[in-house]
């Protein structure tokens, strides 16, 4: 059995990482957790001290943050909730172990990225098929109703059991990867890649996740500028940029739910008299959450974050966040409340560390991934949920292994 593992170690590693992406996107968290455990056990089969030392050296910011969060249990009143949060954060050291020992050839890394894109296309096409079937069964009178709330946003995400923010994160990552393959493909393949990017971009707009749409804009703009200017096609570049902005404007303003959700940011009143002002609500939520910190340097403790937030929601008459026990909807504020300036700086250092590393090695996939997730943290506590932190840790580990490829150009 051992000889079989040694002979087929790369094949098994490839299979397990692919299985991870299938399970994180298309199956319940319980299935994904089992896949992670199996992957960890398999990777430990190749344990050696040198690899462990290298892995810890490469990813020490993750371990440092995990230690700071764990130490905050010492001053958390709600130890039970704190332990649950730490349990979710164990993916930080687990991912370090997995990607320290997991044997993967360079060709396998590229194939894994391709497979991931296939998984995302499978998920999005399935979601659209289910949505269209529901649309037809409801005997909708107009085709444009496909862009109403019943077939967009939460309804579209529910087709595979994902919140739009996390669904969008997975799709944005696939788009970043597709841009990478576009630059390395011949003309015919480039056409198919562009069609894939257009479809996935349309899906994100249909999902109506506002922050993800803004991130999508940043990704496309970044890749258009870097590609066209690298080719020294300045005039053509400006033309493409102009067409891109026209297309983006028409797409957003003509998809019902997406248009209304953007209008909600600045305040919008329906004909029934119902008023929505998401921007004002979010600012009040963030303000209340920021003031929930009772110890600027150390924070309240990871187990007492929600209790402190609820107290501030009550003081500021924020009934909906209080009744539903909302988190701060901002990952930076969330960790400031839990671990104070110490925890926030440790979290920011993670982002800075990987951003700098990917930039130095010209790893544009990794660079864009860190930027995209950093923007998403402004409105979502992504690390509070399994679908967020597990996916991010695995992508960081995988993209780090690509660094050697980029160093060689």
Automatic annotation (TrEMBL):
It comes from Leptobacterium flavescens. Residues 196-348 form the O-antigen ligase-related domain. Coiled coil: none annotated. This is O-antigen ligase-related domain-containing protein. The chain crosses the membrane at residues 12-29, 35-52, 59-76, 88-104, 116-136, 165-182, 187-205, 211-229, 234-252, 335-355. InterPro entries: O-antigen_ligase-rel_domated, WaaL-like. GO terms for cellular component: membrane. Keywords: Membrane, Transmembrane, Transmembrane helix. It is found in: Membrane. It is a multi-pass membrane protein.
